[in-house]
Specification:
26 helices, five-stranded mixed sheet, single chain, Rossmann fold, globular, six-stranded mixed sheet, alpha/beta
């Protein structure tokens, strides 16, 4: 039985052994007899379990063996596995010292494959074929290696279960690497890579949490890059710069960016589970009740100890919350829902004549693909990034991630030197006459302040209204209707018991001024000052803070900057008068606002590292901004670093005035930034005016547009 074989396989790896690769026969026989006796008493339903385990190994469903037959098959299975491991170790850890070594390895490989064929287990045979292919690669016989890899893939291609799929992916990945790098067979490399990616995608969305879906891509990042490069190279080899058949390349780029958060906007809801929602709400309350408060006389050391104790007490509750959140995510949507494929035709249809898109994709750390798209053209070009320029980009992200005070040297030290490699060359002419620019960065580029990028001697924002698209799929996503124009503002200036949170002296006054702007425009509005956690949760439920055209939030927040929220992004929080609300609670609120304005420091940053990775494999949305987008808000305006309040405050105020007067969010922001630059009595560095990032799903709408507009 498969269950018996699995149990003995585990025993083989940990126990003591007698003889050449065979366990102690007496002990093994006793185990098998005991298992056979137990099995005979099991109900018929356990036969289904046996069949499922057999299928996972690629073993056809055959009648159960007797004890002697099971023991014999186990011996043979382990002998083949040992021989496979030995051959793999030889080729992986040593260099052949002459033809005699290659001959010996080939003899071992041939004997191994014959033995595995006779055994008849597909995954076992695939592993033997893989080891034999490695021998041929060591012998520089590429043709023979490819034949073995082809057969390896065929052996497991139609076999159910994770082990078979993983073996097929590994075979295809190596084939694609050889076809691309050695054979220069771009169509062949693309075909192999796409087959492997289809297997990866088959199971990706069975995982619920976005960061887990992104992590699933980590071991396959090079495979996606191979496919994208092969697709681009195959198209570019015989085409002009205005060709339109880049669809497969764009779709592969989108898949490798993860985009689970955006994908959920396309899913068909199947109803909520009130009991599960209630459990989550109760857990959230328990977690937040444990948040530490400090007395006025507490030392910094006492405060730190109190926070550490609270974290320890909260850990089991946070783990349980994550488990329930995953259950909610799995049950709250249709995993079979179709996301529209990104195509050149579809993207062009989504763009207005005055819009252009610049999308970036890193093929490796020093090779960048830049895709420029308008309503009537597309240009794809490759940029080579020097080591010094790459190091400069890495230093920029480090500087912005640790920025706590003024840094007026950003322009000369980072922004200007990187501009030549970030601006398209072949596609530059497509920007002529455009008014709005959509930037879709990749990895580290999410932290580059594109609004300040030099263009025709001026910051880019002088020529274009900028907005950031998390990925190209977001341009096709449906948008919630915010309904009748309405505005709301929330402000917190005092945080008693949390001395680490400094007071925000002007927050309430600024919120009142913003509300008055909408009142002057005849737009109804709500104002909440110094609200408690309970009041905010109630306001999210009763609609006070939901479905507004603009929701302004002026308070402290934590988004991706501490280790807790960096490794579990929905742990990001907004601070309130007595406690906080976190990303879990925001994401489930179904706010559906047109524009969210966050003043919390760093709230506009995207996760580019975390969970033990120096660089995330995908571009998934994490942090406070992501929580609001998950709550079906259409766009989020937030600072990427803690800039000077005397500069940011008037820009945000002017943004609201422009928005209330009918400008879409991207144009409202550009107008506010240009006005600030125009009125400055000296040239203002980007540090003061460029931290604000507008992340948008689709095209921002004007407050004057009919609520029935698409």
């Amino acid at each position: 039985m498969a269950a018996v074989r699995l149990g003995l396989a585990r025993e083989r790896r940990t126990g003591d052994w007698e003889g050449p690769g065979v366990p102690g026969d007496e002990e093994a026989e006793l185990q098998l007899k005991r298992l056979a006796e137990i099995t005979a008493e099991l109900p018929a339903r356990d036969e289904t379990v046996r069949a499922r385990l057999a299928a996972r190994l690629g073993q056809p469903d055959v009648p159960g063996f007797g004890v002697e037959e099971q023991l014999a098959r186990h011996r043979e299975f382990m002998a083949i596995s040992d021989a496979t491991n030995e051959l793999t170790d030889l080729t992986g850890n040593s260099v052949p010292d002459g033809p005699e070594t290659i001959t010996r390895w080939r003899q071992m490989a041939a004997a191994l494959v014959v033995r595995a064929r006779a055994f008849g287990q597909p995954v076992n045979l695939a592993l033997a074929l893989s080891a034999a292919a490695q021998v041929e690669l060591a012998a520089d016989d590429i043709s023979a290696a490819m034949e073995l890899l082809e057969e390896e893939y065929r052996q497991v291609a139609g076999v159910a279960g994770g082990p078979a799929a993983r073996q097929a992916i590994m075979a295809l990945t190596l084939m694609a690497k050889i076809q691309l790098g050695t054979l220069k067979d771009f169509p062949g490399a693309l075909d192999s890579a796409v087959k492997a990616i289809e297997l990866i995608e088959r199971d990706r969305y069975r995982i619920s949490a976005p960061f887990q879906q992104a992590a699933l891509l980590a071991p396959h990042a090079a495979l996606f890059t191979t496919a994208i490069y092969a697709a681009w190279k195959g198209d570019a080899a015989d085409s002009s710069t205005d060709r339109t058949d880049y669809d497969l390349m764009l779709q592969l780029m989108e898949l490798s960016k993860a985009r689970a958060s955006i994908r959920r906007l396309f899913l068909t809801a199947v109803g909520r589970n009130p009991q599960l929602d209630q459990q989550l709400a109760e857990l959230n309350d328990k977690i937040h009740r444990l948040d530490p408060l400090s007395g006025a006389a507490d030392s910094a050391e006492d405060q730190q100890q109190r926070r550490q104790q609270a974290r320890r007490s909260q850990q089991p509750l946070r783990r349980e919350r994550l488990r329930l959140w995953d259950r909610r995510a799995i049950g709250g949507g249709n995993p079979a829902a179709v996301v529209p494929p990104v195509t050149v035709t579809g993207l062009r249809a989504a763009l207005e004549p005055d819009e252009a898109v610049i999308s970036y994709y890193w093929l490796n750390q020093q090779v960048l693909l830049i895709v420029t798209i308008t309503a009537d053209a597309i240009v794809v070009e490759r940029k080579l990034i020097g080591e010094d320029q790459r190091a400069l980009l890495e230093r920029l992200t480090a500087a912005l991630g640790s920025l706590t005070g003024s840094n007026r040297s950003l322009d000369e030290a980072f922004i200007k030197p990187l501009a030549p490699v970030l601006m398209p060359v072949d596609g530059l002419h497509l920007l002529e006459g455009k008014q709005r620019l959509i930037v879709s960065p990749h990895r580290l580029l999410h932290w580059y302040p594109f609004a300040a990028l030099p263009y025709q001697g001026q910051p880019l924002v002088r020529s274009f209204a900028l907005r950031y698209a998390p990925n190209l799929t977001s341009l096709l996503a449906p948008r919630a209707d915010p309904g009748t124009p309405r505005a709301a503002a929330l402000a917190v200036s005092k945080f008693p018991g949390r001395p680490e949170l400094g007071p925000l002296k002007g927050a309430c006054q600024a919120a009142k001024k913003i509300i008055s702007i909408y009142a002057e425009a005849g737009i109804p509005s709500e104002l909440m000052t110094e609200p408690t956690r309970g009041q905010v949760l109630a306001a999210m439920r009763d609609g006070t803070l939901a479905r507004t055209w603009c929701l302004h939030l002026d308070t402290h927040g934590h988004s991706l900057m501490d280790e807790l929220s960096r490794n579990a992004p929905l742990e990001s929080v907004l601070e309130l008068a007595d406690n906080s609300v976190d990303g879990y609670e925001i994401a489930t609120a179904d706010l559906a606002c047109e524009v969210i304005v966050l003043t919390a420091c760093y709230a506009g940053q995207r996760a580019i590292s975390g969970r033990g990775l120096a660089e995330q494999p995908g571009d998934e949305l994490f942090g406070l901004s992501a929580a609001f987008l998950d709550a079906r808000c259409a766009s989020v305006l937030a600072p990427a670093w803690p800039a000077d309040d005397d500069a940011i405050s008037p820009i945000i105020t002017m943004f609201h005035r422009n928005l209330a007067n009918g400008a879409p969010a991207d144009i409202a922001l550009a107008q506010a930034q240009r006005a600030f630059l125009d009125t400055a009595d000296f040239e203002k560095p980007a540090y003061y005016w460029a931290p604000l990032v507008l992340t948008a799903i689709g095209r921002p709408r004007s407050i004057a547009v009919s609520t029935n507009a698409p």
